[in-house]
Write a structure and sequence with these properties.
Layout: H1 3-8, H2 14-36, H3 47-65, H4 71-93, H5 96-103, E1 107-111, E2 114-115, H6 117-121, H7 127-136, E3 145-150, E4 156-160, H8 174-177, E5 188-192, E6 198-201, E7 218-220
Antiparallel strand pairs: 1-2, 1-3, 3-4, 5-6, 5-7
Bound molecules: zinc ion (ZN).
Zinc ion (ZN) binds near residues 195, 197, 209, 212 and 215.
Length: about 230
């Protein structure tokens, strides 16, 4: 086993000092570049921005490690990518259709306290992820939510019903969801655990949800909101 090669590759250990200097220069390049684009923090990236970060990261890494790649080579890549980014951003500001193609568009996940029709047809959207997002926003049950939109940033925007219009709905908290059953003991209004639709379910009868048409597991619909709830 050649430890010299495992530790230093083709280089000798003097090159380690050079790597340190190269890394410092590249760090400054990337930092200045991101400052120029005006990005303050990277919390949620659109797919388009992620692509740029990956391209920059790849260009930034090589001159740090490889003797045959100079830092100016990477600088040229940076300038071209930032220029393209700037031009494309200007361009799509004026072309909404292209913007939707590159960045995606806001998507209604919840309408009127239950999963929207469009979210039921998009099978790749996982409802439990939305339940998690709803909990983060302090939602107790879906009947509080008039509309929920998944933004292109990945954040969820919620529009709440006024207090007097809150309806019974599906609680999105794990303790409730875990109580789901396909045969209910009492005839009452129950909530579908897949889409949040509420309907009357008869005791001892297997009932299919009339909204999503794919689920027959139910939990009792909860009528209060988070602020009224005695369960917390
Ligand atoms: Zn359903």
């Amino acid at each position: 086993m050649n430890w010299q090669e495992i530790l230093f590759g083709d280089e000798n250990y003097f090159f380690l000092a050079e790597i340190a200097i190269r890394s410092l220069i590249m760090f400054l390049f990337v930092f200045l570049g991101l400052r120029i684009t005006g990005k303050r923090a990277v919390k949620q990236l659109s797919i388009f921005e992620l692509l740029i970060i990956i391209a920059l990261g790849s260009a930034a890494g090589d001159p740090m490690l490889y003797r045959e790649v100079g830092v100016l080579n990477a600088l040229v890549v940076f300038v071209v990518i930032f220029l393209l980014y700037w031009l494309l951003t200007k361009f799509i500001e004026h072309h909404k259709k292209i913007e939707a193609l590159l960045e995606g568009k806001p998507f209604y996940v919840i309408r009127d306290g239950r999963a929207s029709k469009e979210s039921l047809t998009h099978k790749e959207l996982a409802m439990d992820e939305f339940f998690s997002a709803l909990r983060v926003s302090g939602v107790f049950q879906l009947g509080e939510v008039k509309a929920g939109v998944l933004e292109t940033s990945g954040n969820m925007s919620l529009l709440f019903y006024p207090k007097e219009e809150i309806r019974p709905g599906l609680s999105v908290w794990p303790d409730y969801l875990s109580k789901k059953t396909d045969y209910v003991a009492q005839t009452d209004v129950y909530a579908c655990t897949t889409c949040g639709n509420t309907q009357k379910v008869n005791a001892g009868e297997k009932t299919r949800c009339s909204h999503c048409l794919q689920n027959d597991e139910w939990v009792k619909a909860i009528s209060e909101s988070a602020s009224q709830s005695e369960y917390f």
